[in-house]
Amino acid sequence: KGDAPETHIALIMALRAAGRQTEIFEKTGNALQKFAANEILLNISAEINEETGNYNRAVEFYETLARLRPDSADYQISLAETYLRLERDTEAIAAARRALELETKHPLAHFYLGKVYFELGQHEEAAENFQKAADIDQKFADAFYFHQFFLRFG
């Protein structure tokens, strides 16, 4: 029981709550050596790396998760978000589109597509995706209205 993945996960979550970053990386690495395909450990590792600005490493974990769970729109969205932070726009678009293939009404996928298109200056596509995100979930309405304001007032 002491060497079950759940024990490692509980310890890592406690260290994370305490903000003990150095120990988190060490314990997560040790746990992944034993349980390399554990989805929860991989996801925690991706999140921790993202939180600490290690976006390339986070992408590696999200790519592994996407291979393990090809049916997960959420992992594709996490990839899109992280690719966007790395300015890997083509890959961000591809990941967001894969998420939409898996779940056609996922507001975050439309939101990240909108963000990438906005940054690329493709404002029609950005507006379309921001509007779709807002239509699906009202909390994304601000993105659509911000985009409209930007277009109007630069």
What's the number of extended β-strand segments? 0
Low-confidence stretches: none
Give a quick account of the main beta sheet: strands, pairing sense, barrel closure: none
Average of the residue pLDDT scores: 91
The percent range for helix content is: over 70%
Distance between the termini: 59 Å
Report the β-strand fraction as a percent range: under 5%
Overall SS class = mainly alpha
Order of helices and strands: HHHHHHHHH
Radius of gyration: 18 Å
Specify the number of helices.
9
Assembly status: single chain
Overall, the morphology is elongated
Task: Break the fold down into its secondary structure elements and pairings.
Layout: H1 5-18, H2 21-34, H3 39-51, H4 55-68, H5 73-85, H6 89-102, H7 107-119, H8 123-136, H9 141-153
Helix pairs in contact: 1-2, 2-3, 3-4, 4-5, 5-6, 5-7, 6-7, 7-8, 8-9
Structure notes:
The chain has 154 residues and is mainly α. Helices cover 79% and strands 0% of the residues. It contains 9 helices and no strands. The chain has helices spanning 5-18, 21-34, 39-51, 55-68, 73-85, 89-102, 107-119, 123-136, 141-153. The model has no long low-confidence stretch (mean pLDDT 91).
Short description:
The longest helix has 14 residues.
List keywords for this structure.
154 residues; mainly alpha
